[in-house]
Structure formats: C-alpha cells, structure tokens
Amino acid sequence: LPPGSCRTFWGWLNAVFNKVDQERIRAVGPDRAASEWLLRCGALVRYQGSPRWQRDYNGLPTGPLGRHRIEAIDATDSCIMYRGFDYLDGLEHVTDIKLEKCMYIQDECLQRLSETSNLQKSLQRLEIISCGNVTDKGIIALHKLRNLQYLYLSDLPGIRQKETTFRVLQQALPNLELELDLE
Fold it and tell me: Quick one: fold of 27-181?
C-alpha cells in the first residue's frame, strides 16, 4: 500500500461509522439508534436499570420502542467523532460519559456535547482522559452542562491555561467537583 493509504482508509471508514441516519433514528428511536452508532464505533453503553455494559452490536436488546434507555457511555478507544454527535440529541437519560483515548474528540465535540439540551439536563459525570485534541476552549465550553456534578480531566496536553480555564468553569458551575491529573 502507498504511504498514508491506511490512514486514509481508516479516516473514510470512521466517517462512514459516524454518518447520522435520521430515518433510522425515527424508525427505532434515539436510544437504539445511538446505541448502534456507539457500538459500531467501539464504545460501550449501559442502560437504565442494568448493571452491565452492552459491548456487542449483535447482542443489542430488542423490545418496544424506548424500552432501553442509555444511562452511561464509555467511549474508551472508540472512533466517535463530531459528525456522529447528532445521535446524542434525543438521549434524555444519559448521566455519565467517559471519553478516554478518543483520537477524534476535539473542542468542537465538547462544544456540541454542551449544547445538546437533553445532556444539559441529564449529564452529571464526565471524564475526559488522554484526548490529545482537547484544549482550554473545549473545556470552557462545558460550562453549559448545568447539572454536571463531577468532571475528571487527565492527560490533556492541549490545556495550557489551567488556572484561568478552571476558574471560568468553577464560576459557571459552582457545585462542580473538579478532579485534575494534568501534570
């Protein structure tokens, strides 16, 4: 293969995985469609009332529309990217999101996450770990998540103005417990 062709192929494949299918969302509901997207991209989901993580796309639960509601997302090592974030719009019960080693997560993703009205109401815990494209701008954008109670930030080399960034965030979200491991 010519140099760079493998990277081009994976970039193309990730774009395909992250393409939003509005017809699918209408047909199966937002939680099922988001589950399919997240699992295709390598993330895990946990549903309300279930202690176990859904890992297998082929093992997605069936049943009446809206029966299984996403409560938590673990996107560790996944290929989720901004393009697919429209899948999050209809999710009303997500309380926890973990973004770890997500090479396609960048400031625009965090801005989009914080502008999602349902997540502004439901999201309580967020972890962002080893996402190299996240900067101060992306962290500051999280101030719109008004019910966020816990934020863990680790190994984010793009955060350069730590004190200013965290002061802005703490002023906007006074009840936020902020845990940092950024040295």
Answer: 3.80.10
Gap between the Cα atoms of 96 and 76, Å rounded? 13
- Please provide the size of the chain in residues: 183
Model's pTM, two decimal places? 0.89
Give the DSSP per-residue string, 40-56.
HTT-EEEETT--SPB--
As a whole number of Å, the end-to-end CA separation of the chain is 39
Q: What band does 12 get if pLDDT is binned at 50, 70 and 90?
A: very low
Q: Give buried/exposed letters for 21-38 (b at 16+ CB in 10 A, else e).
A: eeeebeebbbbbbbbbbb
Contact 39, 63 (CB under 8 A): no
Q: Bin 45: left if φ > 0, else alpha if -120 < ψ < 50, else beta.
A: beta
